[in-house]
Amino acid sequence: MKLQKNAAGRLVPNEVNGEKLMPFMGVNKYKPKGVKAKPSVRSCIDYPMDGNKVVKNLKEALKKAGLKDGMTISTHHHLRNGDALTNILFDTIKGMGIKNIRWFPTASFPVHSHLIKYLEDGTIHHIEGSMNGPLGKFTSDGKMKGVGVLRSHGGRYQSIQDGEVHIDIAVIAAPTADPFGNATGDRGPSACGLIGFSLADSEYADNVIVVTDNLIPFPCVPWQIQGNNVDTVVTIDSLGDSSKIVSGTTQVTKSPDRLLIAEYVAQFIDEAGILKDGFSLQAGAGGTNLAFLLFLKDRMKQKGVKARFMRGGSTQYLVQTLEEGLTDYILDGQTFDLEGVRSMRENPNHVNTSPFTSYNFHGKGNFASLVDVAVLGATEVDVNFNANVVTHSDGYLLHGIGGWQNCLYSKCTVLAIPSFRDRIPVILDEVTTLCAPGELVDVIITERGIAINPLRKDLLKAVKGSSLPIKTIQQLKDEVYEICGGAPAKPKVNKDKVVAVIKWVDGTVIDSVFQVVK
Amino acid sequence: MKLQKNAAGRLVPNEVNGEKLMPFMGVNKYKPKGVKAKPSVRSCIDYPMDGNKVVKNLKEALKKAGLKDGMTISTHHHLRNGDALTNILFDTIKGMGIKNIRWFPTASFPVHSHLIKYLEDGTIHHIEGSMNGPLGKFTSDGKMKGVGVLRSHGGRYQSIQDGEVHIDIAVIAAPTADPFGNATGDRGPSACGLIGFSLADSEYADNVIVVTDNLIPFPCVPWQIQGNNVDTVVTIDSLGDSSKIVSGTTQVTKSPDRLLIAEYVAQFIDEAGILKDGFSLQAGAGGTNLAFLLFLKDRMKQKGVKARFMRGGSTQYLVQTLEEGLTDYILDGQTFDLEGVRSMRENPNHVNTSPFTSYNFHGKGNFASLVDVAVLGATEVDVNFNANVVTHSDGYLLHGIGGWQNCLYSKCTVLAIPSFRDRIPVILDEVTTLCAPGELVDVIITERGIAINPLRKDLLKAVKGSSLPIKTIQQLKDEVYEICGGAPAKPKVNKDKVVAVIKWVDGTVIDSVFQVVK
User: Fold this and answer.
1) Residue B404 backbone dihedrals phi, psi, to 5 degrees
2) Which of A493, B118, B239, B417 has CB atoms 3.0–4.6 Å from B123's, for a disulfide?
């Protein structure tokens, strides 16, 4: 592994896990050549003509799929911290004596700390996918055999489509499925809304196993995953703990500081001229985001303005917006609560999307760049508007990228963040890990002021004379440093050991995460 | 071009239009190797970030797509005999001075006789796709420069997916679309239901042009065609004559003979034990088929039986079946009347399907083989249960294959046909053109008796003792020959000139169509 500086000036390796990497070349600079991944042509001759693909159990399905040492196995994270299947899957793989699996989840959660023993004993070689919490800490401590690779949701689709990651076996948790393999996430005892993050897996993996705890007669409608891409179907008692399938972070914030940020966001969107009939926005979960949506709705009602579409993760608040007629559509990437699940199941204007439609940068356009305003979070922002979403200032890798990088392409990207957390500044001279190139971050909104990227002269002009506390990013940083007593201590890291790389939306490497030393 | 006998004993060429062909090897004998077609990887960099792909006109879009002599251009036939776009398209191509186009429609109709002049002047080299009526006659007369290639709907998907046919430019008529290229057929002034026959085109063509007469703001929901696969969008005044978009053959027959056939079909399905809770059927349009559905509904009501799904083409009668609660779902491949269009738009249990889900033989199974009973027509059947659906006994190629070959894979395939037409026997010693290998045809139902394929001992046993007029196929043929005065005259054909080849569902050639001479 050799480190080189990429176009953002960050040190990145030229290869990890025996695979070559391309350094980040700048925003919109790398242009892919070549053709998409090439799945094998199959024939109906090799599948049961009556459409019944059910096999006895997961072990049988894995055997039939030809499971071998060193294979790549993928899973999705729509069951979030309630996911039982992935742990059962790796218990099974361990029981079969298989080693060195590359685990390629769409994300991992604290519930997957069960897998740490398999990372230790060599069942799993490394993880490519977001590592939220314990697995991230394990990785940061330098304990994973291979190097982690983190991609955005769109980057994951791109990597499969472009043939960078070849999935041998995709294991798809399906809250409802039929024996042919058609599957949906919007109903059943483990309903999680949609399962679109598995779309690429179903299209490109050599072998696709659908696992369900709610098998119904053909046809399973809607078929978010198409049985025509599925090899076998397995039933189990339960896919997971349904109370934890929906995220717990869907309560509106009560913090006065966060509420102030939320009010500023709504005011900014209004006064910058974005809030007009037919506008669109992306709002995720998280207490601040939910609050901002409520403030924005008030302004929409006052002005008589209706949105054309809003993008989720959906929550009860987004669903209310749709049901009150304040938006024509929700274009949803994942459902964060049960109201989101219900609405997606019942309301044809609550549309499920996939990383292909929403985020794939190597397609003929994607939805993300059509959005008028995206309101996102961040762990750190620096004075050049660069932002971090994966590590904390102590160097620990504790969060995934999600669709965050993809959403930066919206027409106006707002990071709504507190200026400091636990007395550690969030606005800094330089981010610990670079996830967003500053030129794509338009506005930083904190409880103590708003900084607009100088590149966005249009926005600066639009809010001139507004009552919003517009400041320079430097001013904001200085204020925060004064409160917190200066810059946070630099993380103690081993610069010789890259524990994970961060991909940009085009598959190049934008930054490295290094081993944290004590 | 050299002719050889294939496994069915039919003479087929080893190449046409400079491309090699494989002879039919028998049902379920040919197993494909290799990988799927490989579309180029694209990048959002090359598409407008605001999602607006609208260009001035069709000529502009074709120029942008790099239209050149000899290219393959595809269109769909969901607008049927009301299609104006395809004629406008080739007027434009002619105006640009382009020659030798391979036209690759999903089917052609009498309205496309406008294109005969372009077949004559070399603008179009040949047609690969069904030729209903005048274009079929033109081809049969030996006037087309190249050789026609006829495929089933599933075979067309298979040929694109497998890379046998590379589409340079797909032109997709979209009754409603947005500037990003998302498109649907279920609404708008030229609504035709679905446009799923263009799915493969949108996925695999180098360049995809969506043409609409109803442009709406993003997002166009549902997106039967995904804008992420679309290069440019063009608006025109009208896609076609909406009164002719829906087929005129959707009236229940009044002929006593056809009504008798329809009654026999319903009785057979009942007495053969197929009519039970959760059963499924495929019924197309055509007067006999519509009548049989009405008789079957009576029996369903009497028995208190509900179907799990019914497959269309949908008509008002199928829609009524759904709305009366006699089936859980309609799985629809194309809508044959305006009630079908409305139902698909409004009823989530009226599901649109595609040749990929329904018919592609080179996938991991398809829907067609899951259907309990499919009731189809035919132009000819022979004493070995072989059937013909494309030519008449005079040798003229006047019909397309449609989904007919694909549906032969149902658990029970019934051909519901009159025993003669215009005093010409429909049951013969040998079919003029082989489209269905006899082993896949289970039952022939005519007004003068029912013949069950001897391979289906189970069905023969099931209807033993029934009041149905069960006969041998030989008996039926003898009766018909007696009425009509023997076998029809053999068509006068030039065996040295193949004018079209008929593909089997796996891409091999099952038969040839020869030039008709006078």
Assistant:
1) -55, -50
2) B118
What's the CA gap between A267 and B405, in Å, rounded? Answer: 62
Q: What class does CATH assign to A51-128+165-244?
A: alpha beta
Strands A11-13 and B327-332: unpaired
**Does A50 sit within 8 Å of B364, measured CB to CB?**
no
Q: Which of B282, B503, B249 is nearest to B408 (CA)?
A: B282
| B40·A39 Cβ contact <8 A | no
Q: Assign a CATH topology to domain B256-495.
A: Glutaconate Coenzyme A-transferase (3.40.1080)
The minimum CA-CA distance between A413 and chain B, rounded to whole Å, is 14
Q: Which residue of B has its CA nearest to A311?
A: B219
For B96-182, where are the alpha helices, taking DSSP H only?
Answer: 116-120, 134-140, 153-161
Residues of chain B in contact with residue A309, where contact means CB-CB under 8 angstroms, are: 218-219
> For the whole model, what pTM was predicted?
0.97
Q: Do B356 and A47 touch (CB under 8 A)?
A: no
| Shortest Cα distance, chain B CAs vs residue A19, angstroms | 20
Q: Number of C-alpha atoms within 13 angstroms, CB side, residue A30?
A: 21
Please, is A38 exposed, middle or buried when counting C-beta atoms within 10 Å of its C-beta (0-12, 13-18, 19+)?
Answer: middle
**B47 CA: distance to closest CA in chain A (Å):** 6
What's the CATH number for A256-498?
Answer: 3.40.1080.10
Tokens of A400: 């995934």
Mutation pick from A36, A209, A364, A413 vs chain B, by most beta carbons of B within 10 Å, is: A364
> What is the pLDDT tens value at each position of chain A, 518 positions in all?
799 999 999 999 999 999 999 999 999 999 999 999 999 999 999 999 999 999 999 999 999 999 999 999 999 999 999 999 999 999 999 999 999 999 999 999 999 999 999 999 999 999 999 988 999 999 999 999 999 999 999 999 999 999 999 999 999 999 999 999 999 999 999 999 999 999 999 999 999 999 999 999 999 999 999 999 999 999 999 999 878 887 656 678 889 999 999 999 999 999 999 999 999 999 877 778 889 999 999 999 999 999 999 998 899 999 999 999 999 999 999 998 889 999 999 999 999 999 999 999 999 999 999 999 999 999 999 999 999 999 999 999 999 999 999 999 999 999 999 999 999 999 999 999 999 999 999 999 999 999 999 999 999 999 999 999 999 999 999 999 999 999 999 999 999 999 999 999 999 999 999 999 98
In this complex, the residue of B35, B308, B360 whose CB is nearest that of residue A38 is B35
Q: Which residues of A touch B50 (CB under 8 A)?
A: 369-370, 411
CATH T-level topology, domain B55-128+165-245: Glutaconate Coenzyme A-transferase (3.40.1080)
How many CB pairs below 8 A link A and B?
A: 180
Residues B260, B473: Cα–Cα separation, whole Å: 18
Task: Provide the residue type at A12 as one letter.
Answer: V
Chain B residues in contact with A366 (beta carbon < 8 A):
44, 228
Report yes or no: B297 and B446 within 8 Å, Cβ to Cβ: no
> Are B41 and A35 a contacting pair at CB < 8 A?
yes
User: B235 to chain A nearest CA, in Å?
Assistant: 19
Look up the ipTM and state it: 0.96
Q: Can you give the residue ranges of every domain in chain A?
A: 51-128+165-244, 256-498
C-alpha–C-alpha distance, residues B350 and B331, integer Å: 6
Fold match between domain B55-128+165-245 and domain B256-495: yes
Contact A348/B348, CB-based, under 8 Å? Answer: yes
Tokens of A304: 């008589």
Residue with tokens 């004075």: A383
The partner residue sitting opposite B228, judged by closest CB among A32, A221, A365, is A365
Residue of B nearest to A507 (CA): B43
Who's near A395: CB < 8 A, 6+ residues apart? A140, A432, A491, A492, A493, A513, A514, A516
The tokens for A447 are 């409880």
